[in-house]
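cron nightly-structures :: item 1 of 1
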Amino acid sequence: MKIFVCSDLHIDTMTERLKRSFELPDADLYFIAGDLMNGVNEENYDWLLNKTKGIKTYFTLGNHDYFYTTREQAFLKINRLIQNTHMHLVCDEAVEIQPGINLWASDMWTNMKLAIHVKDTMDFTLDNWDDCRSIGFLEENGKLRSLSPSDMLNWHNESVAKLLEFLNNTSEKTILMTHHGLFPQCLVRNLEEEPIGLEDALMTSDYSNAILNSKNPPVIAINGHIHKYKCQQLNPRTTLVCNPRGGRDSVANCFINIDKRNGNYAISVE
């Protein structure tokens, strides 16, 4: 089985010429790690349904996918648009892609702890991040307001709890796909020469110990959001694949190969 992996397509930023010429390589499955577009645009989903050529496609969402709506409304709208198609939205859950192999996917958000002070990161988010101006949040009493950093943190904590529960209670192989990162290694630069800043804490968290020391760590961990491609072996078991799109005007050829050898699955990144 060959899986093509990409992220951060940002379809609405493509020129009409690029949208016409854009092609995804042939594969058995497609994985997309969030930020398909700004908000939920029916025309862009029709374009994506056409470009994925009827090949089963699993995708999760990123922060941009919630623009101009709420998280809950985005789920509802998207699921209506892809109903009875080959595309499948996966968020905070696992799906079996082959007997004994699961994809667990989430938008994930962050715990805002990568920088020194969480409060500073939250203040920076409120003042500088479009999410707090472009995404709505529906309270339990039905009141609509703007998304807050605390909302993001709550979503993140819920996602992490579900992920760790899954990794500690499964014996099957897992491919992990999130939009926001879970490892500081996804920051594509020399961290000693360029220390971690507040914006970095909005890109990724650090769950290296919790994930890599779980009962059954993922074989591959994919994330988007960084807008720079990186592939790195985190330990002998887990490979990190960061932002496999690789750029706004092209798609990096990033594949996951699943081969059955002597009754066991070998999973690798190409």
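cron nightly-structures :: done
The CA atoms of residues 7 and 204 lie 15 Å apart.
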